[in-house]
Amino acid sequence: MIxxxxxxxxxxxxxxxxxxxxxxxxxxxxxxxxxxxxTARFAGGxxxxxxxxxxxxEKVITLxxxxxxxxxxxxxxxxxxxxVVALPRDGAELSRFARRTSGFCRVDRAEIDxxxxxxxGRFQKGLFFENEAxxxxxxxxxxxxxxxxIQGGEIFRSTPAPAKVDLDCTGIAAGLPDLRPVRxxxxxxxxxxxxxxxxxxxxxxxxxxxxVPRGDGIFMIGATMVESSSSRPATVRSLSxxxxxxxxxxxxxxxxxxxxxxxxxxxxxxxxxxxxxxxGGTLYLNGLYRHGFLLxxxxxxxxxxxxxxxVRDADHRELKTH
Amino acid sequence: xxxxxxxTTSSLMLGTAxxxxxxxxxxxxRASQAEIITVSLRRETADGSGAGFWNxxxxxxxxxxxxxxxxxxxxxxxxxAQMARELFGTNWIKLEVIGHADNLQPDVFAxxxxxxxxxxxxxDVFPYTTDDLVVGEKLIEAGCKVLMPWGAPIGSGQGLxxxxxxxxxxxxxxxxxxxxxxxxxxxxxxxxxxxxxMDGVLLNTAVxxxxxxxxMAKAMSLAIEAGRSGFTAxxxxxxxxxxxxxxxxxxxxLM
Lengths: 322, 255
Fold this sequence. Notes:
In chain A, about 30% of the residues lie in helices and about 25% in strands. Chain A contains 9 helices and 17 strands. Chain B has about 260 residues and is α/β, with parallel strands linked by helices. In chain B, strand 4 (about 35-40), helix 2 and strand 5 (about 65) form a beta-alpha-beta unit. Chain B has helices at about 20-30, 50-60, 75-90, 110-120, 135-140, 165-170, 185-195, 205-210, 215-230, and strands spanning about 1-5, 5, 10-15, 35-40, 65, 90-95, 125-130, 150, 180, 200-205.
C-alpha cells in the first residue's frame, strides 16, 4: 500500500500513475471535496509548453509536450492551439516572444480573422501555436479523481494524512526548504457576445494576459505573479489591469459579468521547475508553479517509478535476509 | 564609489524584478558582480508575505537597497520606506514617486517632499529623479547625498535620451555621486553613461528580460568597467580635421 498526502493535481496524478502500475494507493485529503483547497482550482488549464518556454527552461517542453494526450484519456481536452497577439505599439513584445519560443507559425490579419472571427480586423500580426491545448481545471480534477477510483485507488476526503506517508503532495503546506509561494490572481467572466475557439494570449510589457475559453460564454483570465504568501482575495489593482487588458483584446468584455475572482498560491522552487525530493521516509512531489496541468503527468510518472523501484528494492532486500 | 559611507568596487547596481526565475536571478547577480541589489517592496507584500523571495536575496550577503517602486504619493512612498527599513534593517531607500502611470515619469515635486521627510527621519535617500538641475539642487537641500537621474523612462530600454543633460549634471554636481537609473537597454548605453562621468548605473529590465540574463549581466559589468576606465583615462576630444597618427616629419625622401 502506498499512501499519499494531498488530493490536488500532484497527488491525484501520482495516484493514477501508481494504480496504472498495479500499486494499491490511499490518498488523504484534508478538505471536504476534491479541488476545494487545491491551487489547481485557479489554474488556466493551458497545456502550452511551447508558449511557456518564453519564460521557462527547455524542460517545460520535454516534460510537458505529452500532457495533452495524457489528459485526453480522462477529460475533455480542446486542441485549438494558442493564438498570441499584441497591440500595434507592443510589436516588440511579439518579436521577443517569437525569439524565445518555437513550434508556432506567424499569422497575419487575414489568418487571425480566419482563426478567430471575433477578432476580425483587430490585430495585424500574431503567432499561432497549433499543437497546444487546454482543459477545464475543475472538471479535470473531478475526472482525475474518478479515474483513480476506477483503478481501485482510495481517496479519503476530510481526512488528515497519517503522520508518515510515502508521497507528500501538499504544495505550500509541505513547508519544504527552498519552496516559496508565488501568488496568482484570476477572474472568470461571462460574456455571451464573443466566441473564441482557443486560448488567446495578449502580450504587453506590463500586463500580459491569457484568456481561456471555457465554453458557454465563460472565460477565465489570468494571471498575476506576485512573490507573496498572502492568500487574500484578488486586489483592485490586479483585477483592473487584467480586466482592462481583456477589454483591449475585445471591447465586448466591457459588458461581461465578472462571475468569480480568485487568488491562489503556486508552490515554486528557485528554478520554477517541479522537483522530487526525499526527506526521511517520504518522497515529495512539489513546485509545479504555474505548470500544474502541464507538468504533473510527467512528474507523477517519475514519482510512481521511484516509489515502486524503492518498494522492489526493499522486497529484494527482505527476500535476501530470509 | 562611496554611497552614504559605504565603499563599493562595482559601479553596477542590479534590480531583482522580472527574472524568469529566482535561480536565473541569482546567476545574473553573480555574473554582474554587483554588490548592491535593489528590492521592490510592494504594499501588497509589505506585511511580510514576500518573505520567501526576500530571504533568498538577503541570504546572498549583498547590500540591499529597498525601493518604493510603484508609489504614487508622498504618503505612500514614506510608509513604504518605513516598512522597508523594518523588514530589511537598512536606512537605505531608493525613493521613487511615480507621477504618471503610463510613462512612469517621477513626480519631482512629491519626490522632494518625500525626500525631506525621509532624510529628516534618518534615511539615506537615493532619489530616482529626472536630469533637471534645479530638482537635483532641491533634493540635495532636502538631504540627499546621491542623485539618480533617469536615462530614459523605466523599462523602456531606450538608452540615454539626453546625454547632454547628464553631462551638465556631472559638471553641476561634481562631488555628488550620480547613478543613472532607468532606461538602459544595451551594454553600450551603460558604457556611455560611465564615459559621461557618472559614478554608477542601476538597471534591471535590460538584464532580466534578456534571453540570457547572466550573459547580459556580465556584458553590462564589462561595459561599465570599460566606460569608467575610459572616463578616468581622460579621453581625447573630437576634432574637425584629420590628424595622421604616424609622424609626417622625417618621411623617406625619394632620390
